[in-house]
Amino acid sequence: LQQAFMLLTYSFNNLVDDDDIQLNHSRYGHDFRDSLDNKERKKRANKVPRLALLSLHSSPWRKLIESSSDPALITFTGFDKNAFYVLLEIFAPYFDEYTPFTTNGKICLKRVGFGRPRKIRPEDCLGLSLAWTRTRGSKVQLNMTFGMTATNCA
Asked: 152 near 145, Cβ under 8 Å?
């Protein structure tokens, strides 16, 4: 306890005056990024590569949804298990029948027999949408929680 107090006292006594602190505005970060070579810029791209993610099937989201924990689901999506599944019953047919991946960018009916099967289930898509509204939309957090790359979370 005495060591902690001494450390705290030392830290307090060695504080820099507010006048000595230089605050950098975020716009000055561009100067720093511009000074980096391509390799260093790529490291700081604010993206989570697929190899750093858990698979979608073992993601924290799937753990949460399979646990059926009402407090956790309410915290993350804003809905309890029963309300979430009522929404899912309404949402799932639209998810299964439509696709946003078209050449003109409009949502349209999926063509049967075309493309790869989806790995994302309707509950994943609904959970992602609800979580986005609750977590202020941090892409990196959503990538890590849902085990999806930024492209899938967009």
From this structure: no
